């Protein structure tokens, strides 16, 4: 039998936290990050003579199996739970102990004495979250780059087309379509840069700080060795925290990632909202942009097609904002030496990056890549441009130029009535 199981601590937590919500098993990347921390710790503990070689090898083998994506069914707890994540740590400890015991033919392997040796939930979980988020940010960056590149391609494709800009949803002056798409690409780049910068602090981890950052319960030299070992396992640079106590008591680095993710969502949503407006109608609205026809838009009106992808992008941005708000609130109440609300930040970070990465790729591949401008509609609308009025104002004055501007619907000049105060 090679199916790991959990133990009594996990069973008690499953009963205590019996609420709907995402389970640890739904986030294999996070479990892999947590198992990587356990693998690094057991290797260093073995090297320092704190564990028998055969026990250490069995625990390491079990951890490697979890990193490979095995035993997911044994991680039954919800991500959000009381106790600051102790139950998550114990779920991993018990699964690895049970599997290691199987590997050793039934020999006892203890979840605390062996698997959790030289560690605390308080230093393990922030470290596990950090090493999980770094590659997730890289995935999100790649998805945002795809959006940026697609928009830049559109700027080249419609390099010679000019359309009517709108300010406050009213006719304004001409703007090259290439400028529109370049500005959108710049917005995505700005958001992606902020996300990349937010990720840098994650590479400083508190592993080895144990319960309150002092390293109590870990042997001398453990911190430097375990951080170096973990870096080799995950494949990117890590450094030991300058102040592990800070990173135990605050999850600000992770919160900043969540906030940057929400910022990227806003950038995408703004683009989606603009395209949705420019594609409105198409006969009774602006109708300058034609979006890919993805699916029927009405169960009653044949032929109606809705801008479902921009709407999805906008809806996801609202979810990202909500996650950022909950993460901020959770880290604010991290009293004294630990933040007991860490599971809320963990879920916010994991789900936010997954949503951003997914929706950015969908936006690029199922909307932006095949959107088209309608030159005939663009040129017809361009006749309402106020460009000539702006030029006239420079030569004749604002009031004279304003008197020449006529309402397209009535043919009469636009007249802004003077206020009673100015009239008197």
Structure description:
- The chain has 424 residues and is mainly α.
- The chain contains 16 helices and six strands.
- The chain has helices spanning 8-16, 28-47, 53-67, 86-103, 111-115, 121-157, 177-199, 222-234, 244-249, 252-278, 308-332, 342-368, 375-382, 387-396, 398-404, 420-423; strands spanning 162-167, 170-176, 204-205, 239-240, 289-290, 372-373.
- It starts with 7 loop residues before the first helix and ends with a helix.
Task: Give short descriptive properties of this protein.
Fumarase C, Chain B, domain 1, two-stranded antiparallel sheet, 16 helices, mainly alpha, two-stranded parallel sheet, 2 domains, 424 residues, Fumarase C, Chain A, domain 2, elongated
How far is the first residue's CA from the last residue's CA? 95 Å
Query: Can you tell me the CATH class of the largest domain?
Result: Mainly Alpha
Named CATH architecture of the largest domain = Up-down Bundle
pLDDT averaged residue by residue: 93
Number of strands: 6
Order of helices and strands: HHHHHHEEHEHEHHEHHEHHHH
Low-confidence stretches: none
Tell me what portion of residues adopts beta-strand conformation. under 5%
Q: CATH-wise, what's the superfamily of the largest domain?
A: Fumarase/aspartase (Central domain)
Judging from the principal axes of the Cα atoms, what is the shape?
A: elongated
* Largest sheet data: 2 strands, antiparallel
Number of helices: 16
